[in-house]
Amino acid sequence: MKKIVCHPRLGEITLSRTLRASRITLSVRPDGSIRLSFPALVSERRALRFLEQKVEWAEQVRTKQKAQNPVVSLADSFPTRRHRLRLLAGDYVRISVRITEEEIIVRYPHSCSADSEQVQEAARRGVVEALRREAKELLPPWVDRLATRHGFRYRNIAIKATHSKWGSCTAHNDLNFSLFLLLLPDELIEYVILHELCHTVHKNHSPRFHALLDEVTNGRDRELAREMRKRHPSI
After folding, report:
1. Rounded Cα–Cα distance for residues 165 and 232 (Å)
2. Domain C-terminal end among 117, 132, 147
3. What does DSSP say about strands 175-178 and 157-160: parallel, antiparallel, or unpaired?
4. What is the pLDDT of residue 68?
5. What is the DSSP letter of 180?
6. The dihedral of CA 92, 94, 95, 98: what is its sign?
7. Residue 125, domain member (yes or no)
8. Residues 143 and 207 in one domain
């Protein structure tokens, strides 16, 4: 069960009651979003009391993350897998975005600058849409190849613009992947895919889960996990 609540100091909080959770935990994602996870037998009221005890901690983590991960402007020629961003100033009345087979074209008036909030918002919108198209084309066959190679079975695949996590696996073995996955190197994309495929066998992060993930990654589970902790699904 997932539910969104609005906290007066922290804003939107995702409440997640799950069978996987063994205790109440509060996590602050790299994009600043906050998730409160708690076991199925724990009441929502008790979980929210735990949240109130952690408000100052969550605010401190957010402040630290903003300092470590400042918003970076998208420059001209920013690449996705199959597209390249073009920022074109001209005698335009308004800002527009167009996606071709190879380019994400953002046109804007001379009165704006390339790093202005409005142009950058348009650029990010265009890049996200390009990534969505690429992910829907590239990720399903990629998942299928790895699942076939290692003998995994899954049901459906969904591609979303999630900033909180790279992927997830439901109780029914439906796989969800962030479209920002395509900004990673191939070996890390495969690690995320294999991570979620292993959840079709083990619905937790138990020693057996990590043993299986280590097996299908040729003994590189810990190494690749360390590398993934340096990254977050965003642009």
Report:
1. 8
2. 132
3. parallel
4. 65
5. G
6. negative
7. yes
8. yes
Q: Which residue has the tokens 């029914």?
A: 172
Helix axis angle for 186-198 and 207-216, nearest 10°, is 140
Q: CATH number for the domain including 172?
A: 3.30.2010.10
Largest CA distance in the chain: 61
pLDDT digits (tens, 9 = 90+) for 73-129: 899 999 999 999 999 999 999 999 999 999 999 999 998 999 888 999 999 999 999
Q: What amino acid is encoded at 42 in this protein?
A: V
142 and 123 in a common domain: no
Whether the Cβ atoms of residue 152 and residue 197 lie closer than 8 Å to each other:
yes
Q: Cα angle vertex 142, ends 166, 128, to 5°?
A: 45
Q: Are 177 and 192 in contact (CB under 8 A)?
A: yes
Distance CA 57, CA 93 (A): 46
**In whole angstroms, how far apart are CA 100 and each of 80, 86, 93, 97?**
13, 11, 21, 10
pTM for the model: 0.73
Please write down the long-range contacts of 152-156, taking CB distance under 8 Å and 24 or more positions apart: 152/197, 152/198, 152/200, 152/201, 153/200, 154/197, 154/200
3-state secondary structure (DSSP) of residue 108: strand
Q: Which of 81-85, 114-118, 183-187, 197-201 has the lowest mean pLDDT?
A: 114-118
Q: Which residue has tokens 């920013």?
A: 78
Range of the domain at 207: 136-228
What's the order of all strands across the beta sheet hosting 84-90?
Answer: 84-90, 103-109, 96-99
